[in-house]
Design goal:
heterodimer, A: Rossmann fold, 2 domains, six-stranded mixed beta sheet, four-stranded antiparallel beta sheet, about 40% helix, B: about 280 residues
């Protein structure tokens, strides 16, 4: 089943401006994990979660379908119940005194019946491993913990689709590790994950497909291994180090089965060296 | 080469933000030499920023001592330290406040009493290095985020400090921008500036720094050449740092000298095959 489909999406922030999205076509299947890189990533996220066209002024052409329904005909609240959004800075998504209150607040906004809330709070905090912090004051949390609470409050709304816009930008290595671990677990649970980040090697570990947007258009929409083969030599996209070294040594060909991790590299070089 | 005295000498430094409060720095001793290119690694809250803010007198030791070019940071006016140690904040908007790029760039040197000619010459040179020439009259807030970040660095360059400290200079930037900035820093380092970057990017530290300092829980955990530091995997793990893939890969491949960058790996591999 398809989760989100964009059909020839064009968007400009005002009528006279150059469009930032120039005819985007993407189909995201349910349960897929999609990574988005390149320009106008945030604008694309906003279109996928209905903030465009509902809340941001601008000029949109084309269609966005969320689970088969045209987003322009849906209410913001309906969309919010299906599509959860996590932003760069968790501070912007926390307004309450403690962790529990933040998680409950999100549910209140979409009208979850009170008797259902307890279960959902427990479940959401469990997924992001924040159960022991349920009554902790928000300001006492680390960056990674705050971002995990932001994810929990979105999960409590039980969205089928989760969109994350640079969720680890403000975090340190430990916080980043925590978030990617949570994303890995979410992916297994069957939720559709769309993530925008600036760290291609990291994304390759969880994404089914990687999309690159250049000049308002989709340049590539392929599996990670193929993505790095296309982007070898590009000055803006960083390859996994093992992949970079491999291509620098052996060059690129159609048949290259590109190693991306240390483990894959060891296997691949083992085969090559055994030929000598 | 003659061994000169360290440019910054930290002796048994402890620090707490409140009197009697818990210690953020728990006894750090460190010598930084002219020409060092240091990457400081560690978790948020480990004390990295607190440590470097002692280098230009923004913070004063609770106990212990920090000396910059033999000057005790406690008894030396901050203005004097600022002429030797420049600090670039992570967020450029925390340090930009003038109405034009030129005012911004000349603010530091003017304030420190540099001659009119020096103010002019330093300003021009800093703008040129950071590729902002021609934007002198622009309002800083009309610049892009990347340009504002370059401006923040330029304002520090215009002072011509011996030591330049940059807090997370490459966060959120793509490969091309990161490489360009690191190239500029490398050039400044070759001209004799001491460079200290605070970063979360261990691959970046491996590729560019000549020395890596790891701070953990207010103390100095590791200090040395990146290759030596990365061999201490258990200690790194304690602070959630993992060595760069290419380093781990070179060890798995039993390269004699583990590589710090893909380019180093390629060179080593070719040597290995020839042998």
């Amino acid at each position: 089943m398809e989760a989100i489909r964009l059909e020839n999406l064009i968007f400009k922030y005002n009528r006279k401006a150059e469009p930032v999205l120039k005819g985007i076509n993407i189909t995201v299947k349910q349960g897929e994990c999609i990574a988005i890189l390149g320009d106008s990533k945030t604008t694309l996220c906003m279109a996928m979660c209905g903030v465009i066209p509902h809340l941001i002024p601008g000029h949109m052409d084309g269609k966005v379908y969320i689970e088969g329904r045209d987003s322009a005909t849906m209410g913001v609240k309906d969309i919010a119940a299906k599509v959860g959004v996590v932003l760069q800075d968790p501070e912007n998504q926390s307004f309450n005194l403690n962790v529990e209150a933040d998680v409950v607040f999100a549910m209140e906004n979409i009208g979850v019946p009170p008797e259902e809330m307890e279960n959902r709070v427990q479940e959401a905090l469990e997924i992001v491993r924040m159960t022991p912090f349920r009554y902790t004051a928000s300001h006492q949390l680390s960056g990674g913990q705050k971002q995990r609470v932001a994810i929990a409050s979105v999960l409590a709304m039980k969205p089928q689709i989760l969109i994350l816009d640079e969720p680890t930008r403000e975090l340190d290595p430990m916080g980043r590790e925590e978030i990617f671990e949570v994303l890995g677990r979410l992916k297994k649970s069957g939720i559709t994950v769309i993530i925008v980040e600036n760290d291609p090697p990291r994304l390759a570990k969880i994404a089914d497909r990687m999309l690159l947007i250049r000049n308002g258009q989709i340049k590539y929409d392929v599996a990670p291994r193929q993505f790095f083969k296309y982007l070898y030599g590009d000055d803006r996209i960083k390859l996994p180090q093992v992949a970079q070294a491999y291509l620098d040594i052996f060059g690129l060909s159609e048949q290259t089965n590109l190693p991306m991790s240390v483990k894959e590299g060891v296997e691949m070089y083992g085969k090559i060296l055994s030929h000598y | 080469m003659e061994k000169s005295s360290p440019i910054i000498k930290v002796e048994d430094l402890t620090f707490s933000y409140r009197k009697g409060g818990s210690l953020v720095l728990k006894g750090i001793s460190l010598e930084i030499n002219q020409g060092d290119f240091i990457a400081i690694l560690g978790q948020n809250g480990s004390g990295k920023s607190t440590l470097v803010r002692h280098f230009n007198g923004l913070l004063q030791p609770t106990s212990g001592r920090v000396r910059v070019k033999e000057m005790d940071s406690k008894t030396t006016p901050v203005s004097k330290l600022a002429a030797s140690v420049g600090y670039v904040f992570q967020n450029p908007d925390h340090q930009i406040f003038c109405a034009s790029v030129w005012d911004e760039i000349t603010f530091g040197p003017k304030n420190l009493g540099y001659s009119k000619d020096a103010v002019e010459a330093n300003g021009r040179e800093a703008l040129e290095i950071m590729e902002l020439t021609g934007k002198e009259e622009r309002h800083p807030h009309s610049l892009s985020r990347g340009e504002r970040q370059r401006l923040a660095i330029a304002t520090v360059l215009a002072i011509k400090p011996d030591v330049i400290i940059l807090d997370e200079p490459t966060g959120g930037q793509d490969k091309a921008r990161t490489e360009k900035l690191m190239y500029i820093l490398k050039n400044l380092n070759e001209k004799g500036h001491t460079i200290i970057i605070i970063t979360h990017d261990i691959e970046l530290a491996a590729e560019y720094a000549k020395r890596v300092v790891v701070i953990f829980d207010g103390g100095l955990l590791l200090d040395g050449h990146p290759r030596d530091v990365f061999l201490e995997e258990e200690q790194l793990h304690q602070t959630f740092l993992t060595v760069p893939d290419i380093f781990a890969f070179s060890r798995a491949m039993q390269l004699k000298t583990p590589a710090l960058s893909p380019a180093e790996f390629v060179a080593e591999y070719k040597k290995m095959k020839l042998a």
